[in-house]
Design goal:
This protein has helices at 87-98, 120-129; strands spanning 2-15, 21-33, 38-48, 57-64, 69-73, 107-113, 139-141, 149-154, 166-178. It is globular. A hairpin with a 7-residue loop joins strand 7 and strand 8 (149-154). Strands 4-3-2-1-9 form a five-stranded antiparallel sheet, with helices on one face. It has two helices and nine strands; from the N terminus they run E-E-E-E-E-H-E-H-E-E-E. The termini are close together. By secondary structure, it is mainly beta.
Length: 179
Amino acid sequence: MLKTKVTEHFYTLRSILGENVFKIKIYTENRNNLEDKSAGFDIKITPIDASTTHPIIILRGSFVGTDDSKCRVNDFQLPVEMIGYRVGTFVLHQLYKCIQPGIREQVIITGRLPKEKAPESRDSLYKKLINYKQSEEAIFKSSSKDADGWFEGRLHDVGESWRKSLVIIEHNEMLIKDD
């Protein structure tokens, strides 16, 4: 028997200084098959009223029994006006919360670190995401001017340091499907 729950969350965030407002939509689909003990999720986080409608991140995972699922961060890209306000930390914190307990502990996350010059905050954020230095299974290879880097490790909550820069001024949740 397959159980599916689909929700959409709409957030309006304001920078703590009050000058910038950001709108984000989080689409989550969680699936559980009680017969074969498989599960899966799809998460898509998209900016609203931004300079781009390109998704910030899309993450998919599927599991059978107690096997780990390897999820790849193919493209984690904030609209330029959201950079520098800890919106990335907010997004990854919400992503972690969207994956149901019992499944999120099985997620192995991996991604590429492009060689172009990136802010130090990017590497710091991904290190938090895989619990680098505290986890023996976490791997982090920094990019250089000549080569891409990469990371891999078990998904962890990046925490709520975003609260130092952002305030949630509106949050709406819409249940689309629950069967």
